[in-house]
């Protein structure tokens, strides 16, 4: 049975029964998951291989032996992973204030144990949507960076001045080249950057 969403949910909780229950819940909603018994185990997973190129989110217990969920959350935040892998904290009643504070610092949400299955899955699907958007932004930026890397130094010079709004004659004067040479470089820049106008080029570059 194929998942409804092409996404992956990571479960990090030291309680095996909680991990199994969550994995079963996600399977019943056709959502793929991987689970870990400690924050250290999840960190090791992250260290060994790049994350899959698909939407993902993290269900993270607040209190665990060894490294706490909060420490792991802070490390993920330092690495800039919270947008592409939103964190939903799983918390007991006593940890609600802590979880609320984590949300203020960038966590996607928290669910208090025992949680509503439907409410949790709804938030997971929303988190996966956020991850998908963040990953798409990253793909666009990588693609733009790759195209810029293909430009010659002179084409970059011309591109910079085109974006500043200078006409070809002034660009030629500043770079001490002919107007015809500017036109050739300009056309190549537009072709490599896959744009048709200076306005579109400026908008593309702002995406970086």
Automatic annotation (TrEMBL):
Keywords: DNA-binding, Phosphoprotein, Transcription, Transcription regulation. The keyword Nucleotide-binding does not apply. Pfam families: GerE (PF00196), Response_reg (PF00072). GO terms for biological process: phosphorelay signal transduction system; regulation of DNA-templated transcription. It comes from the Bacteria. SUPFAM superfamilies: C-terminal effector domain of the bipartite response regulators, CheY-like. Residues 144-208 form the HTH luxR-type domain. The keyword Oxidoreductase does not apply. GO terms for molecular function: DNA binding. Residues 8-128 form the Response regulatory domain. The modification 4-aspartylphosphate is found at residue 61. This is DNA-binding response regulator. It comes from Acidovorax cavernicola.
């Amino acid at each position: 049975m194929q998942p409804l969403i092409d996404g992956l949910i990571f479960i990090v909780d030291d309680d095996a029964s909680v991990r199994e229950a969550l994995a079963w819940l996600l399977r019943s909603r056709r959502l793929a998951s991987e689970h870990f018994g400690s924050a250290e185990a999840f960190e090791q997973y992250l260290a060994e291989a790049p994350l899959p190129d698909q939407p993902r989110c993290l269900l993270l217990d607040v209190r665990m032996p060894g490294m706490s969920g909060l420490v792991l959350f802070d490390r993920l935040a330092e690495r800039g992973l919270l947008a592409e892998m939103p964190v939903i904290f799983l918390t007991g009643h006593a940890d609600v204030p802590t979880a609320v504070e984590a949300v203020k610092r960038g966590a996607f949400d928290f669910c208090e144990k025992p949680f509503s299955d439907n409410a949790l899955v709804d938030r997971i699907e929303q988190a996966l949507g956020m991850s998908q958007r963040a990953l798409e932004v990253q793909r666009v930026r990588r693609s733009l960076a790759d195209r810029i890397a293909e430009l010659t130094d002179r084409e970059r010079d011309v591109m910079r001045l085109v974006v500043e709004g200078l006409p070809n004659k002034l660009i030629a004067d500043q770079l001490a080249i002919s107007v015809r040479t500017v036109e050739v470089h300009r056309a190549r820049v537009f072709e490599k950057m896959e744009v048709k106008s200076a306005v579109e080029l400026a908008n593309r570059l702002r995406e970086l």
